[in-house]
Specification:
Keywords: Sugar transport, Transport. It comes from Citrus sinensis. There is one protein chain. With about 220 residues, the chain is an all-alpha fold. Helix content is about 75%, strand content about 0%. The longest helix has 29 residues. The termini are close together.
């Protein structure tokens, strides 16, 4: 899932421009990975969570850096810097400081887990716009099958892992992701051979390009 946008960033590097792609999904994913890494380090026996999301931090940091390098205007570069500063520096720093200084033991783990789960649920809900587009246009062009499949697989595997280790903070958001991934595959099955609505497709093509948010 972390490597899913590689083709997009290869295109950015080749064109030396981020074009109309938005940095927000990658900045949010960097925050998500950082919080989950912190959770994995803090909760005993959760080093798998920490290592997977530690890899995510490296990948997302590269993506965000490319936005700084190839943003076509100073305004877009400044916008990326502001959002990065607020979320990945300010919010993350405040979350770590608050849980380290004000909480300890299970209370600290629970507080970090609630933040991680809440952010993950929001991020898992982000592809709902793509699902709406599929229904509106009667076309799966804007919802690639492999991405939907790995979305489904990622949520299912992490939810099963959470069940095995009895971790509700992993289970709830990834269970939600598994259900949404299943819904995407059902939509794909329904509309993969349907005739697209030309007017709807044209209106969607005029919109802003974006990538889905990536989850743990």
């Amino acid at each position: 899932m972390f490597l899913a946008p590689v083709r997009t960033f290869w295109r950015i590097i080749k064109h030396r421009s981020t074009e109309e792609f938005q940095s927000l999904p990658y900045i949010c994913t960097l925050l998500n990975s950082s919080l989950w890494t912190y959770y994995g380090i803090t909760r005993p026996g959760s080093y798998l969570v920490a290592t997977v999301n530690g890899f995510g931090i490296l990948v997302e940091a590269v993506y965000v850096t490319l936005f700084f390098i190839y943003a076509p205007t100073k305004a877009m570069r400044a916008e990326t810097a502001i959002i990065f500063g607020i979320l990945d520096v300010g919010f993350l720093g405040a979350a770590i400081a608050a849980t380290r200084l004000a909480l300890e033991g299970e209370a600290r783990i629970d507080a970090i887990g609630v933040m991680c789960a809440g952010l993950n649920i929001i991020m898992y809900a982000s592809p709902l716009s793509a699902m709406k587009t599929v229904v509106t246009t009667k076309s799966v062009e804007f919802m690639p099958f492999m991405l939907s499949f790995f979305f489904f697989l990622n949520g299912g595997i992490w939810a099963f892992y959470a069940l095995l280790v009895r971790d509700i903070f992993l289970g709830v958001p990834n269970g939600t992701g598994f259900l949404l991934g299943t819904a995407q595959l059902v939509l794909y099955a329904i509309y993969s051979n349907a005739k697209p609505s030309k007017n709807a497709v044209n209106s969607m093509e005029e919109g802003t390009q974006h990538e889905p948010l990536i989850m743990s």
